[in-house]
Design brief:
about 400 residues, alpha+beta, 4-stranded antiparallel sheet, globular
């Protein structure tokens, strides 16, 4: 415990000395997020400084091994880093599907060569990844996917289509599910493969959403040649890798239910509604709704810590991430409903030079997809009923 106390003091001092003041403020736009990648650009000098200092420290992914660019910290130390960053409002230095989804799968299923090739580039923000899972006829029933990979010597030739591929038009590489044995049962005969998005035959088409923005894409593969050495895990056993990765994806998505670096709802609402003589939000009903939300937000944060602690102790349940995904996404939808309610008529402003105002209805509309992407809320509840509650007939 004394060693952890020392580590906490040293971590707090390092963060205070190295996190620029600008990186301790709530994010106001998508440009405040650094995704990394071959074509990445920093939105500001403080963003560059913060990322590079964390990268050099190994704290873009503190708990990964040092040989892959991580910090080599144990679970308790990594938890302290998260807590101390939260204490000063420090932003994550990078947002990355490579960190939150692919990385854990690589650590578990990757060959030594695959780990050494990809993990250091992920921690250093050199490659931006996207996920090739869903297809037009394979959404919730993902195992019915039809994108095919046919053997040709040392390569596979891939043909098919993916949909809802988040940020595929900006990604450098894709981790993708393909069918390598069309004669096998649908959960068998699937392989998990990695390849460069600049490969000949890969194309993307953005999907415009009701919010007027386009995080999703259709992704097409037309005779794409990929080395067989890029298969992660065992050929025809990709479903094992896919399920493991989904646990991490759903845990990542659940995090949107936590406030992170944004301002508390009460402060946001006070800016529009005002406060009474006692300094309370001048709308009793809205004040009660926000108070209820704050309690549920705190409960989600506590559950997230519990999930990490259980996993560290080897007691984690593989379906717990589904419960977290459901709760976190539904909570985020509630947050944006309250933001709209607290903004009054100003919150309906769509086109505005004041981007923080014009962004509010767009963000609210975008959250409608939260309970669909990464597995619908109905599917998540079904998994909880079957795998955790063991309900009859589930």
């Amino acid at each position: 415990m004394a060693d952890l106390d020392t580590f906490r003091r040293e971590t707090r001092a390092w963060l205070e000395a190295n996190c620029p003041p600008e990186m301790r403020r709530p994010m106001t736009s998508d440009e405040d997020t650094f995704w990394g990648g071959r074509n990445a650009k920093f939105s500001s000098e403080p963003q560059r400084v913060w990322f590079e200092r964390m990268r050099d420290k190994g704290w873009t992914v503190p708990h990964w091994p040092r040989e892959y660019g991580g910090g080599g910290l144990d679970g308790e130390e990594a938890k302290i880093v998260r807590q101390e960053m939260a204490a000063i409002g420090a932003r994550a230095p990078i947002t990355s599907f490579g960190i939150s989804m692919l990385g854990p799968a690589l650590l578990k299923y990757g060959t030594d060569a695959q780990k050494r090739e990809h993990l250091p580039k992920i921690t250093a923000g050199l490659i931006r990844w996207c996920q090739g899972y869903s297809e037009p006829n394979a959404g919730s029933d993902l195992a019915s996917l039809q994108t095919r990979a046919e053997s040709d010597g040392d390569d596979y030739i891939i043909n098919g289509q993916k949909i809802w591929t988040s940020y595929a038009n900006y990604a450098d590489w894709i981790f993708c599910l393909v069918r390598t044995d069309p004669t096998a049962k649908k959960h068998d005969g699937i392989s998990f493969i990695l390849f460069d998005m600049t490969s000949e035959g890969v194309s993307t088409k953005p999907i415009l959403l009701i919010s007027g923005r386009s995080p999703f894409c259709e992704t097409f593969f037309d005779n794409v040649r990929v080395p067989k050495a890029n298969v992660l895990g065992t050929v025809n056993r990709g479903w094992d890798v896919a399920k493991y990765l989904l646990q991490h994806e759903r845990a990542m998505i659940s995090g949107m239910g936590e406030r992170g670096g944004s301002r508390p709802l009460g402060q946001v609402a006070a800016g529009s509604v005002g406060s009474d003589a006692q300094g309370k939000l001048d709308d009793a009903l809205l004040r009660a709704e926000i108070a209820n939300f704050d309690v549920d937000e705190a409960a989600l944060a506590a559950a997230a810590e519990r999930m990490v602690d259980l996993a560290k102790a080897g007691q984690g349940h593989p379906a717990f991430s589904s419960a977290m995904k459901y709760y976190g996404t539904e909570l985020n939808k509630r947050r944006h409903e309250l933001l709209m309610s607290s903004g009054g008529i100003d919150a309906l402003e769509w086109e505005s030079e004041r981007s923080h105002e014009g962004a509010r209805p767009r963000a609210w509309l975008r959250t409608k997809a939260n309970s669909i992407e990464g597995g619908t809320s109905e599917v998540m509840l079904g998994i909880v009923a079957k795998r955790i509650l063991d309900l009859p007939g589930a």
